[in-house]
From TrEMBL:
Protein name in UniProt: ATP-dependent Clp protease ATP-binding subunit ClpX zinc ribbon domain-containing protein
Organism: Nocardioides zhouii
InterPro entries per the UniProt record, alphabetical: Znf_CppX_C4
One term of GO molecular function: protein dimerization activity
Domain (ATP-dependent Clp protease ATP-binding subunit ClpX zinc ribbon): residue spans on this chain: 7-48
Domain of life of the organism encoding this protein: Bacteria
Stored SMART domains: zf-C4_ClpX
Length: 129
């Protein structure tokens, strides 16, 4: 199994990216960031005026209710992307013969709880391992 960036989006601006697009995504552990956001954050961090203005201010504090609502679908898409990424990691661990009990311990839950959340019904023949 190979974990790819195909079909992913930038977790910060929502731009679709990855192979087959002009948007290169970098990052890992679920969060992906596009080059434009990296450049924007780099500029912000290295400009004392921008950095001071951004410090402590949250973007949603400056948004209208309509803007917050408009961003909700992107936030849900990012959350779903991270959930899918977690499933890919669990699939990778199962392919490496890591037991459900070990995965559960890593997540701080029981073997049964992790199996119920991550087992691909019908595709994992070793559900009890």
């Amino acid at each position: 199994m190979s974990i790819t960036r195909e079909g992913r989006m930038c977790s910060f601006c929502g731009t679709s990216g990855g192979p087959g697009t002009d948007v290169q995504l970098i990052g890992g552990l679920g969060a992906q960031v596009c080059g434009t956001c990296v450049d924007d954050f780099h500029a912000l961090l290295h400009d004392p005026v921008q950095h001071a203005a951004a410090k402590g201010a949250f973007p949603w504090d400056r948004m209208s209710d309509a803007e917050v609502l408009a961003n909700l679908s992107m936030i849900m898409a990012s959350a779903e992307q991270n959930t899918a990424f977690a499933h890919e990691w669990v699939d990778l661990l199962r392919e490496r013969n890591i037991s459900w009990a070990e995965i559960g311990r890593a997540l701080g839950v029981s073997r049964q709880a992790v199996w119920e959340r991550f087992a691909r019904k019908g595709s994992d023949k070793s559900a009890t391992a």
